[in-house]
Amino acid sequence: MELISPESQRWRSLTLKGSLSDHIQNQLIQVPNPRLINLNICDLRNAYGTAFDFPLTPEGHPLRNVVLGRVALDWDCSRLKGLRCLRVQGLRENKPTLLQLHTMISSSPELEVLVLGSWHWEYPGSADAPPNLDTIKLQFLKTLILDSMDPNIVGGISSLIIAPICRNLKIDWARANVVQDQYAASRLANLLHGPSKEASALFLTYDHISGEILLGEEEDGVDRELLDIREATSKLAKRRGLYFDISFANPVQDSVSQSWNDSLRALMENVLQPALSDLNIPIQFQQEDPPEDESEELAPDILFGLDFITSLKLFRSPGIITTIDYLASPQARPDENGQSKPRAWPCPHLEKITVLWDEEDCKNVRDALDRLRSNRAGCLIEGETDPPRGSHLEDRLPHPMKEIIIKNFAGDDYQIWSEEGWILLEVDQASATDGASSSAEGSE
Predict the structure, then answer these.
(1) Each residue of 135-152: pLDDT tens digit?
(2) Pairwise CA distance, residues 444 & 442, whole Å
(3) Which H helix or E strand runs over 79?
């Protein structure tokens, strides 16, 4: 630092990665940097230490690229405008407020990468309503990551941004406040739509214990892309991916709010339906940690919000027969004004269903699945094989079931329905044939 500090007036880029000792920090405080446009400082010391406040010279060139790991700035500095990259991770204090973030982002129309993550925050009892701030259109934004931070920041940013070419999206720990407001939900749906179009398959996972809904490209719901402040921004901008995590639970009380079903309906109808309904890819809905009490089951009429799914995975639970039977016939449900809508088929694009069950207690489930298969077969209008997505639910007819699997909890075998009836496959046979019935030896 002693060698380069005298030239600080000429600095255009500054990159420091490693342990920022007190000596280095003191030297940085003493040098002006009016021409600096690229700032990349990552303090890799103890994560629980105090963040370094980097002193930007108030008067100078606007910054273009800002990458900060456990480093803070004067977030009201007038040089924080016209940004193309803003990455701020690992802050415990001196974090920018939502209003400060809005000011920086709205004054940066050419922003391409926005990453905010790993901020220390206290679990609030509830998230605030989306803020009354102007919408921000970012025509060049390619990557948006909001990870492990205050849900009010997550909800505020995700409900304010319009990013038509964003293809790398991670929103972690959103809360129910972002789906209740119709306009905020509409902007969130648009954000999800872009990366969804790039996916080969999507998985929607619901966990009644944690109160979480996960949407992503991994069946197990795991986010495999770790947030690394050292990753090159150019590489981050080229990524493709989708991970969306929203929670309806109160983390203070460790319980799902009483308005769980209402919030879930709002998520399905205001966000997921408009985001996913026109996609021609497999979309699976599955339930993690199934409830032990039938009163905790997913309300059947919420299945109307899942008209975009093509596959359903169910675990053993007290109300599973009710759920299957609900899918086996047209249903009526009230609209927002309490008036009954015309009867319609829930999940009209459903073609595959997988049930994890105990082998010795399988007959009732098989009977229900037989009713489902039989009732949904032959319902299409003659000559129509694929009802268009995007039409009204009451105008849709269901796809016939193509694959039904009952899998033993112990993983010993599969029971698979085919045109010839139910067959039994050992695990190695099922793996080898990928569920094809032609290799089956035993039948029932």
Answers:
(1) 999 999 999 999 988 888
(2) 7
(3) none
